[in-house]
Design goal:
The protein has 118 residues and is an all-beta fold. The protein has no helices and eleven strands. It has strands at 3-7, 10-12, 18-25, 34-39, 45-51, 58-60, 68-73, 78-83, 92-98, 107-108, 112-116. The protein is globular, with a radius of gyration of 13 Å.
Length: 118
């Protein structure tokens, strides 16, 4: 059974930094592309960043480019999102995601909440 467990969220002041983690199990993590998505209060899910199975190629949404960095440690089955220069509009619940063709269906974790506020 696929499990994704996010952690690392919290309250941060504007301009601050935080690192989110996603611990994965139940599938071949090292063969799977992984993504971070988020949901701001009152809004739908939006894709944030993704990384290939080997951790070589990543991409990010324009609104986080230059501020957020995605990485992974395949030995630990863990996936990260380093967030710098945080803004109030980054406030959201952040989820890690894996889906087809790496898994039979889409999976998200329970999410970790980030609040950026002074």
């Amino acid at each position: 059974e696929v499990h994704l467990v996010e952690s690392g969220g919290g309250l941060v002041q504007p301009g601050g930094s935080l690192r989110l983690s996603c611990a994965a199990s139940g599938f071949t993590f090292s063969n799977s592309h992984m993504s971070w998505v988020r949901q701001a209060p009152g809004k739908g899910l939006e894709w944030v960043s993704g990384i290939d199975s080997g951790g070589v190629t990543s991409s990010s949404a324009d609104f986080v480019k230059g501020r957020f960095t995605v990485s992974r440690d395949n030995a630990k089955n863990t996936f990260y999102l380093q967030m710098n220069s945080l803004k109030p509009e980054d406030t959201a619940v952040y989820y890690c995601h894996v889906g087809p063709p790496y898994t039979g269906t889409n999976y998200w974790g329970q999410g970790t909440k980030l609040t950026v506020s002074s």
